[in-house]
Specification:
It contains ten helices and ten strands. With 276 residues, it is an alpha/beta fold. It is globular, with a radius of gyration of 18 Å.
Length: 276
């Protein structure tokens, strides 16, 4: 298992994501993922499955201290006081005393970043979160968050896959010692239809999804959190540590970027960075 160093914190490079998983699937797939060998689990208040994730962790038999657990605070709880209460509620649902990583799920321009990060810092000081970070923040917002937070931020979780160029965000995060955590790393299944990824996969005895995930984690400071409700896919997504892509293959996959490659773009999203 590869780990990424993010401001001194070691984060497993592959995690199991639970976005859009119904509670029953979240519970069984988290248990399965941990038995397969995953040690990084990613959920969020907005996913409405924290309780199921907690059950999956318990059912797995893997010791809590061996698991890197992430959850995210929804934007309606960014006020001082509301944020701390929402985290306490999350911990109850997850049935744990702490999370390893706590993220602000999306930017919320309605509430001062200073107020929100002050509350997030307090949660870390109280030991409810070992590490803190952000999600869906642009380069400008990353700078603001780093300057405002009294404590180090370890990651920015954003959409990232072969069709979306995130080099501007990667460079900004690297300058701050932060990692990029890639959600939607399989481009909602589009990678499995890609002839380039399929061809590279055949050369390594791997499928297109495994190639896309390997491409992500083979980059410096990138973590990927694929999700699936299929046990076989959960297992195969983890089988990416027994081969390496060549420099030419890495470049060929990067060349798949397109200008309209973004798949997650809700109405409340910030004005995204674009590559040069």
């Amino acid at each position: 298992m590869k780990h990424v160093d993010a401001n001194g914190t070691q984060i497993p490079a592959i995690g199991f994501g639970t976005f859009e998983l119904e509670p029953a699937d979240a519970e069984s797939m988290v248990e399965h993922a941990l038995k397969v060998g995953y040690r990084h689990i990613d959920t969020a208040q907005m996913y409405k499955n924290e309780q199921a994730v907690g059950r999956g962790i318990r059912n797995s038999g893997v010791a809590r201290e061996d698991i890197f657990l992430t959850t995210k605070i929804w934007t309606d709880s960014y006020r001082d006081g509301d944020l701390q209460q929402s985290v306490e509620d999350s911990l109850k649902r997850l049935d744990t005393d702490y999370v390893d990583l706590l993220l602000l799920h999306w930017p919320n321009p309605e509430i001062s970043l200073k107020e929100t990060l002050g509350a997030l810092n307090e949660v870390q000081e109280r030991g409810l979160a070992r590490n803190i970070g952000i999600s869906n923040f642009t380069r400008e917002l990353i700078d603001q968050a780093v300057e405002t937070s009294g404590k180090p931020l370890v990651t920015n979780q954003v959409e990232y896959h072969p069709y979306l160029d995130q080099r501007p965000v990667l460079d900004k995060l690297s300058a701050h010692g932060m990692a990029l955590t890639a959600y939607c790393p399989l481009a909602r299944g589009e990678v499995f239809k890609d002839q380039t990824l399929e061809r590279i996969g055949k050369a390594h005895g791997k499928n297109a999804g495994q190639i896309a995930l390997r491409w992500l984690i083979q980059q410096d400071d990138v973590i990927a959190v694929p999700r699936s409700s299929n046990p076989d896919h959960v297992s195969s997504n983890f089988e990416i540590f027994d081969f390496e892509l060549s420099a030419d293959e890495m470049r060929e996959i990067a060349d798949l970027h397109t200008k309209d490659g973004r798949m997650i773009d809700p109405s409340f999203a910030p004005s995204w960075d674009t590559a040069a």
